[in-house]
Amino acid sequence: MSRKSFLQGAIVLGVAGIIVKVLGAFFRIPLANMIGEVGMGYYQTAYPIYVFLLVISTAGIPTAISKIVAEKNAVGNRYGAHRVFKVSFILMFVIGIVTSSILFFGAKYIVQILKNPGAYYSMIAIAPALLFTPVMAAYRGYFQGLQDMKPTAVSQIVEQFIRVAVGYSLALMFISQGLTKAAAGASFGAAAGAIGGSVFLIWIYALRRKEINLEIQQSRIQLTESAGSILKRVFVIAIPITIGAAIMPIMNMIDVAIVMRRLQAVGFTAETANGLYGQLTGMAGPIINFPQVLSMGIAMSLVPVVSDAFERKDYQFLRYNVESGVRVSMLIGLPCAFGIMALSEQIMLLLYPLQKASAVSAASSLSILAFGVIFLSLVQTLTGILQGLGKPAIPVRNLFIGGLLKILITFVLTGIYSINIKGAAIGTLVAYITATALNLYSVKKYTGSKFNIQLTVIKPLISVIVMTGVVVLSYKALSGVTGSSAATGLAIIIGALIYGLVLVAIKGITYDDLEMLPKGNKIARLLIKLKLISK
User: Fold this and answer.
1) Does residue 144 register a pLDDT over 70?
2) Are 261 and 74 in contact (CB under 8 A)?
3) For position 513, what pLDDT does the model report?
4) Running DSSP on this structure, what letter comes out for residue 115?
5) Taken in order 390, 148, 58, 122, is the CA torsion positive or negative?
6) Cα–chain-centroid distance for residue 351?
7) How many other C-beta atoms can be found within 10 angstroms of the C-beta atom of residue 226?
């Protein structure tokens, strides 16, 4: 694949990823307003189990399909490429039957282990998604192997749109029958989305079937590779990827069991423990997803750039991109973290006006998770760099170490009555700090990068401290005039402007930094005209 076409594909998938994340956040916020912390607790208990089985069934195999299809296609063996798809499709369909059956028929046993029986209907409702998602994954892997990213990107958006529309509608329909049924309705949205995404991809494949058949007939090579040989190659590629992708879902599953059991062990009822878990993962968690969209964009753009520089042994250009990427990540992560921390309670009340008591209670957990945004941004960026260097196992190992610490800290702190659910948030924060430190060490070791502390940390931190003070004062001044919700929104806008102005004033941002941001070149040219920065 040429560098140009690779970047075009990355942009297509990146834009789709942003749309999917935004849709997901807008789904969970109104859902939490409707079903509250208890309903979100049921929903969030089922979700980590589903994600774990989803990762097992779809994390590595589509990548393997894509890689093998691309290899065969590159030598003109379209017949062999299509055979890989057919064999893999059967494999994925079987995996889908197995994983969906495990969740559907094992739901009662799983909720008993997790000590959250109210999540039973949610698990049953989400189980069908595991039947259709592997089907989608097979088609996506095939099209990606043909260097066509559009079917994957559009199907992701279709899947998420249907999930949001159906999930919210069913939750609204069943709310009168109780929170367990409403949470189950929301969970079924994932199944509906998977069905819709599968139908879309099958339709695209059907439209291209004549073209595909013609290319197969004209294939220069028509050697038949046995199904066993194909499956062996698929598993060799897929298993390491799946192990890496499964780390956080496994940690999250363990987290559910630890939190529910430890909270009940220190005196909280099962319903209260479920509600606290819903506050953390269903109400505070989605807010942290917004800053992630920006840092993920940086990470995705760094992978091909770092990889290209590393392959060409252009170490000066490599170090320049590594240092700039980390600096821009800090420029984004710091204001997001401090801004959310400064207005955590106000943001929760703004987003969850129908669940005021839960919103106020969840604010402390949000503050802790918000501080973690700094390190989450760095983890994603440093992971992208290490992947570009051809060292994908290193961030997996480091995240695993962070995950083990998360389990230990969550176990200890959630068992302290006064800390309770905040212990899980602290555990998550420690996991990201640990992974960041280890990733940073590895990046410095393999690239020899030396980070400018003034530009990377000190100047952004000064700007953030000024911004935070202005945000707090602005909110206090405005809240008595406009009311809390309007004051919160205005304070956020004022804070963003102040942060940018201070950063420019103390020369904490460069022309090159701006060019790495979306539409940053236009901003840079404007600031040059105003003589606020130089090229």
Assistant:
1) yes
2) no
3) 64
4) T
5) positive
6) 20
7) 10
Q: Give ∠ CA 270-276-281 in degrees, rounded to 5.
A: 120
C-alpha to C-alpha distance for 170 and 237, rounded to whole angstroms:
39
Cα 445 to Cα 389, 415, 431, 449: the distances in Å are 12, 39, 21, 8
Identify the band that residue 293 occupies on the pLDDT scale cut at 50, 70 and 90: low
In this prediction, residue 491 has a pLDDT band, given cuts at 50, 70 and 90, of: very high
Q: How is residue 493 written in tokens? A: 């806008």
Per-residue pLDDT reduced to its tens digit, 21-69 = 777 777 877 888 888 888 888 888 888 788 888 888 887 787 778 777 8
Averaged pLDDT score across all residues of the chain: 84
Assign residue 360 a region (left: φ > 0; alpha: ψ between -120 and 50; beta: otherwise).
alpha
- The reported pLDDT for the residue numbered 6 is 38
pLDDT value of position 4: 38
Q: Do 215 and 72 form a contact (C-beta atoms < 8 A)? A: no
Please state, in angstroms and rounded to a whole number, the distance separating the CA atoms of residues 96 and 144. Answer: 21
How far apart are the C-alpha atoms of 251 and 406, rounded to whole Å?
Answer: 8
In the chain, % helix, strand, coil (3-state, to 5) comes to 85, 0, 15
Q: What is the distance between the alpha carbons of residues 44 and 256, in angstroms, rounded to a whole number? A: 9
Query: How confident is the model over 366-401, as pLDDT tens digits?
Result: 999 999 999 988 988 898 788 778 787 888 889 889
Round to whole Å and give the CA distance between 309 and 315.
7
Distance from C-alpha of 460 to C-alpha of 499, rounded to nearest angstrom: 9
Cα→Cα distances 80→177, 207, 213, 218, 451, Å: 53, 21, 12, 12, 48
Within 10 Å of residue 33's Cβ, how many Cβ atoms?
17
C-alpha span between 201 and 179 (Å, rounded): 34
Among residues 451, 64, 96, 113, which one has the least CA distance to residue 257?
113
Q: Are 167 and 104 in contact (CB under 8 A)?
A: no
Helices 3-58 and 227-265: angle between axes, nearest 10 degrees: 60
For residue 163, CA distances in Å to 15, 149, 528 come to 19, 21, 45
* Calpha distance 456→327 (Å, rounded): 5
Amino acid at 91: L
Report the residue count for the chain: 535
From the list 224, 96, 230, 81, the residue with the least C-alpha distance to 143 is 81
Q: Please give the Cα distance from 79 to 219 (Å, whole number).
A: 6
DSSP-derived 3-state class of residue 454 = helix
| Tokens 């003034």 belong to residue | 454
Residue 299 structure tokens: 């990470």
- Nearest-angstrom CA–CA distance, 282 and 280: 6
CA geometry: angle 256, 257, 262, nearest 5 deg: 105
- The amino acid at 213: N
